[in-house]
Amino acid sequence: MRALIQRVLDAQVTVENEIVGSCGHGLLVFLGVGQQDTKENAERLWRKISRLRIFADEQGKTNLSLMDVGGELLVISQFTLFANCKRGNRPSFTEAAPPALANELYEYFCKLARQDVSHVGQGVFGASMQVSLTNDGPFTIWLDI
After folding, report:
1. Omega of the bond prior to 98 within 30 degrees of 0, cis?
2. What pTM does this model have?
3. Distance between the two ends of the chain, CA-based, in angstroms?
4. How many domains does the chain have?
């Protein structure tokens, strides 16, 4: 699994001009699922993300996690995180999981997050989505599990 994580002041995702998911201060996670990924990968990735100390404490140091600040979360399925551009100019997505597995693990990841976070917004799997955000920092991290 791969995640592109952005610390945000707010974020929202729109499908067909309707807001389908949003979050306030917290994290926007673009989640990619690979062919070999399992529920164990999703669990490991969620543990890592939920404990990342990327929020400022009283001294301005990044010592606090999403859980520590009571932050919100928006999760967007993003198979293009598995794009391979080594050959030619057209990305190959053969390393991405098939849609059925990707959706299953995406939903499982969101379920795990909901056990710990009071507000978890989601995009619509497989839909054409427009995502807007206010990046805080900016602070962006790439995780591969």
Report:
1. no
2. 0.94
3. 5
4. 1
| Listed residue (124, 121, 123, 127) closest to 27, CA to CA | 121
Catalytic residue among 38, 80, 134, 140: 80
Widest distance between CA atoms in the chain: 49
Domain of 73, in residue numbers:
2-144
If one counts every other C-beta atom within 10 angstroms of the C-beta of residue 24, the result is 14
Query: Active site includes 80?
Result: yes
Element at 113 (helix H, strand E) = helix 99-116
Helical residues (DSSP H) of 52-135, grouped into ranges: 66-69, 99-116
Q: What is the pLDDT of residue 88?
A: 87
Helix residue ranges, H only, 11-98: 39-51, 66-69
What CATH number does the domain containing 92 carry?
3.50.80.10
Convert the pLDDT of each residue in 88-108 to its tens digit: 899 989 899 999 999 999 999
